[in-house]
Amino acid sequence: MSKPAVGRENVVNLQERRLDRTVLRTYRTKADIDDIVPNDKQPRLGPKIDEELQRQIEANGGLFEPLLVEPHPDFPGRFRIIDGDRRWTNSRALVEQGKEDYRQVPIEVTDRTLSEEDRLRVWIYIHRQRKEWDAKEKEMVAYRLVDLMGRTSAANILGITVRELDKLVDIFELSEKFISLRDPSAAITWSRELMGVSKKLLTPSVVEAVVKKVNQKRITNSKDLRKLRSILPDPVARANFLAEVGDLDTAMLRLVPAEKKPKGGLPGDLDSIMESMKTLPWTALQSMKGDKDLLKKIDEAEALLRSLRNALS
Predict the structure, then answer these.
(1) Which positions fall inside the ParB-like N-terminal domain (predicted)?
(2) What is the enclosing helix (H) or strand (E) of 69?
(3) What residues contact residue 244 under an 8 Å CB cut-off, 6+ apart?
(4) Where are the domains of the chain?
(5) Could you give the CA distance from residue 238 to residue 65 in angstroms, rounded to a whole number?
(6) What would be the CATH architecture of the domain defined by 9-113?
(7) Is the pTM of this model over 0.70?
(8) Which of 102, 103, 3 is nearest to 62 (CA)?
(9) Residue 82: which H helix or E strand, with range?
(10) In which band, very low, low, confident or very high, does the pLDDT at 47 lie, cut at 50, 70 and 90?
(11) Whole-number Å distance between alpha carbons of 238 and 251
(12) Over 50: is that where the pLDDT of 6 sits?
């Protein structure tokens, strides 16, 4: 089995690639799938096998985008992945299915082994350019970085405050509790919606009730969680939602309509007139059409309102 040589002939045409604050000098070549090693501190969590990605690799006749790799610090002649773990995993899956055409994969190799911080910065910079970042990845990466490096270093790499980092971590940890969704990646959306509720209202018992009712499929639209902003401040509606038989719809029925405080004097009189006009049925308007006396009164009211505006301006 032939393997690419790693020597002077491979690095004469180094190119600079600027990624965030890190400038890489890289060259392109190909490598055997077994000479590439995944990064054990990969920021992305979760399963990486993806049959759709395998179909895309086959349709393209191989990887369209090379893996970004670095010289492995412990195994001479081998490479460690900086970015492209999913592409490597699914290319390897094809090889394990006996499809040897996918054994040689394109790689972009850095001229040095990166520091752990630089490696993470590069990976995050690359992934921030992709649509998956806002869809589901930033909370997951924040959680993983805290585990790898601690809160202060994680916040620094992501370019956010520790407080913002803690919020991302909280959202990710909450998302892990939504275990019965048809699309597991949608758990982040559910968690974001729930965390949008005021922390003063979002007690552990409320979170537990929401998670339970979502997992029981008694709440099926994440946007419906916004109703909690009205339900939770009302003690009766809140008690109904927290009850075993309660849900969002039954709790909404328990809400006491907010009473409008009557305004006194001229503002109150104007409010009453406008409210009366708004609630006038269209059938009544049709019957008044062409009424000369009514039209005259409207003209008088219009003139009076203009005079009032001029006097108050």
Answers:
(1) 29-126
(2) strand 67-71
(3) none
(4) 9-113, 183-257
(5) 52
(6) Alpha-Beta Complex (3.90)
(7) no
(8) 102
(9) strand 79-83
(10) confident
(11) 7
(12) no
